[in-house]
Amino acid sequence: MEKAAGSPSVGGSYPQKNAEILSSQYGINLFLAGLLLTFAWAVHAVGISKSHLLSYLITLMLIQLLWMLWYLCRSCTQRRLIRDKDRHAGARWLKCGITLFAVITLILDSFKIGYYIDFSNCLSPTEGIFPVTHAVHTILQVYFLWCHAKDIIQSFKTLERFGVIHSVFTNLLLWTNGVLTESKHQLNEHKERLITLGFGNITIVLDDHAPQCNCTTTTLCSIFSQGIYYLYPFNIEYHILASTMLYVLWKNIGRKVEHHQQHKTPFKFHGITVGMIFGLIVLTSTIAIVVVYLIQIGRSKIKSELALTMFYLHAIFVLALMCTAGIVALLIYRLEDRSLDNSKNPARKLDAELLVGTAAGSWLLSWGSILAIICAQAHPKYTWYNLPYSVLVIIEKYIQNLFIIESIHREQEKVNDDIKTLRIVTISRGSTLSLTPSYKEIYNGRAACDSGEVPCLFKGSIGGRENGDGGATEETSQENSSVMHSASDFSFYNRNSVANNKRRILKNIAAFLFLCNLSLWIPPAFGCRPEYDNGLEEIVFGFEPWIIVVNLAMPFSIFYRMHSAASLFEVNCKT
């Protein structure tokens, strides 16, 4: 009988598992086809133009738009139904972050439209259709994620799997296209800078995709063309965040969740002043370093070397502080005895996998720099600063990953929110006696005596009246109870103060690391990339091989910093 009862469950889960496999394979093939098309355009393959690539991306976005409209319409017709929600997915701060990136992406699309209008004589119509389609896609997708990122889909599951996975890989292809376009622009600038550093033996051939006609308004064309590349980092982050949120939605399709009370973890500035101050100092100094770096690099050999030295020294100092903060946080965790939450959570699992996976991009670049320093025959003075910098990058990510992953897996302190104050009122000799144990006593189980029936003071008062000795016995009982409460309060406050100090230190560390990761996201995102400008790696590995490595690893390194900042924000709210 038990086997017969269990067989429907097995039979029912098999088609869904099959649909999951089929949809994932569909998405991967969709992505690989687009990836090869992107690569073919990048290397100027015969018969492949930018219009072919844009036509493919436009088609994918239109299909996703149709699916999202269908899902939204179906949700409106079923809005009275109670639906399961994943409380860990689609946090409000994550939605606010993706909205900010989406707004800047819309500005980027408007720049592209203006750029197309100025060069309309020699550009394909797809270059004008693409930003319009992309803008509509961005607006509807952000609305969709705000309303349905937490959904656990239980109907039309097979169809929804294909729709969601299509959306995931569409965003990944748009991310790939943005990364490639931005990388080609950075590579052109990098080739021009290498001459000023004395690497004249490297062949400088610019990879130019500029329109072959004159602009109608030169000033506007310059603004559009330069502004586009400064806005690409935000567009890149937008698409990778959207793809991760949609992936969690895909993993949640058909999932069974336990219904329990949701604990909200709002962000509070209280108690993190020290971490915020130090973090803002790092952020301000990093912005100043990036500005000076971009001004000085490429102007002359001396100025370029000074810019690289300045960058390395600043980065070494910041990374050393981050390593120290991470070690202190891990030591505090070792002193605490709190269990880990190992329940099934697709969002948390994805966060941990992304941290380790994207950190590999920085580790690859760091090990490449270390090997170049060891193997190079000649070492300009500024290249020696690259050695401690590369070593610290490896160590810092290792420590920070341990801290973040353990933090998001630690169980929160369970506090009974329904009981804030216990007030017991009894009539004693015609007067009202209000006895209110503190919330701290209630939380630690000290509000009840050994019998667990009445508070200690109340019991003492009753005992005094039963003795019949009048005020003397009652006062003695109350004094003994008062002494007992004083001792327990002293022990409680002693432990509580230590726990609060640990918690305050952890929140300050999380706030400091949050701002530091935002700071370290800025340099590579806006063109401050010593891996390009150092020159030593190109001599050891060869120009083309090293540029390929950098172009593959750098996007993951940039995403790591933004994802770490988002995870640390969650850690700060949770601590």
TrEMBL record:
InterPro entries: Otopetrin (IPR004878). Keywords: Cell membrane, Hydrogen ion transport, Ion channel, Ion transport, Membrane, Transmembrane, Transmembrane helix, Transport. GO terms for cellular component: plasma membrane. GO terms for biological process: inner ear morphogenesis. It comes from the Eukaryota. It is found in: Cell membrane. It is a multi-pass membrane protein. The keyword tRNA processing does not apply. Pfam families: Otopetrin. The chain crosses the membrane at residues 26-47, 53-72, 93-117, 129-146, 229-250, 271-295, 311-333, 354-379, 505-527, 539-560. GO terms for molecular function: proton channel activity. Belongs to the otopetrin family. This is OTOP1 protein.
